[in-house]
Amino acid sequence: MRAFIAAIACCLPLACAAARFDAVVSHVTDGDTVWVRPLAGGPPQQVRIEGIDAPEICQAFGERSRDALAARVLRKRVTLLTRGEDDFRRTVARIRLEREDVGGWMVSQGYAWSYRFRRDAGPYRHEERSAQLARRGLWASGSAELPRDFRVRHGPCTAAP
What we know:
This protein has helices at residues 2-17, 62-73, 102-108, 125-134, 147-154; strands spanning 20-30, 33-38, 45-49, 52-53, 77-85, 91-97, 100-101, 113-114. With 161 residues, the chain is of the alpha+beta class.
């Protein structure tokens, strides 16, 4: 019983952090980050799309990934299911455009990877495999490099002066 109570207590912060709200996408930073204006009011929020990792903006295919996301969601009403914040204080959330999971769409079209953690291939591993087999998006060239590997080799992208 003690283990059960401990397991529930560990999950409570996650449950409390989750929230669902509707918003309008006001800006797309890159292939996995947007800014939204909550319909209920309040300040704009920077949102990192949960479960995906898009190319860095200065990486090959980075701008195409950002542009695809912008074409899909910019100035549109979306529903967010938040999961908390990341290390950069961005809201982490699943984003839905009507009935479509935006993260799943980005991966299935070859604009992002399913986010990997250790040996886990991520929540969109099937969508990623489908995009690879069809050679869609970043898989067309056969030389796609994971963003984290790109950052190790080149460092973070910096804004032009």
